Amino acid sequence: MKQNQTIITYFIIKGISDVPQLQALIFVLVLIIYLTVLVGNMSLLLLVCLDSHLHTPMYFFLANLSIVDMTSSTVTLHKILLTFITGDNTVVYLACLVQSYMFGSLSGHGLFILTAMSYDRYVAICRPLNYNIIMNIRICLLLASFCWIFGFIQVVPYVWMLSKISCYSSIVVDHFCCDLAAFMDMACSDITILESLTIIQGMIIYIIIPFFLTFISYAFIIKTILKIRSNIGRRKAFYTCSSHLTVIVLLYTTLTLQYAIPTHLLGSKKLFSLFNTTIVPVLNPLIYSLKNKDVKAAFTRKFGSWKVGTFAVT
User: How confident is the model at residue 307 (pLDDT cuts 50, 70, 90)?
Assistant: First the structure.
């Protein structure tokens, strides 16, 4: 039974670690990762906007993904940086709700956009002759708009029910941001409905539907690739979706492990959440740049006088 029930107006964010000797190191690492996320994704976003050769559906969705990565990292990591600078690790109740809402929304955005990209890859490989007709500007805008709008809407029930929790057993959030799982563990009022909603809707919207749609797309893609007689043709077809497939495997692996861990093991969940909000946004522009000849060529066209290094291509 939870003790010390109280109604609170603010929370104390515990952060990644509460060991004083590690705070400076954590700050430096988080700052480097955050700047890397901003530089890598902003570079890729600007390159897509500036180079007409990248004005295609694939890079349109990739630009949306870069916006999601930058925003998500800003929403989740800014408090770690501010706490070290100001020494204040408190967050008012309303601000915590807003952060929880944005964190959940942006997590959905990323999954939905990657699902839309899987459909784009399906059309590109399985129906190449009709690609420009099917993936026209109107369809791309509709898909992107749905990803953003639905991402913002689907998390509303969680935050609404979170706001109805009458009291908490503690004001210390064992996380680096206002995470739903941490709030649920601290709640001293009945959260049965919220727990059921988290399991059912979370699994369906975040895992089952996006994974099923992506799986169907790649089932057709693999079937089409296997029908190609020449080895060169098969390699070329697989190359067009290898970057997206790499990101998909990486993201779904961490999500599966995160959902497989029991709720009370918040420390492990925190590590996977940290991975998804730091390492994945860093790797996305690298994967799509280093494995993509079009991006490298675009970088050379726009910045031909520069030496293209390992990270410069992003």
Answer: very low
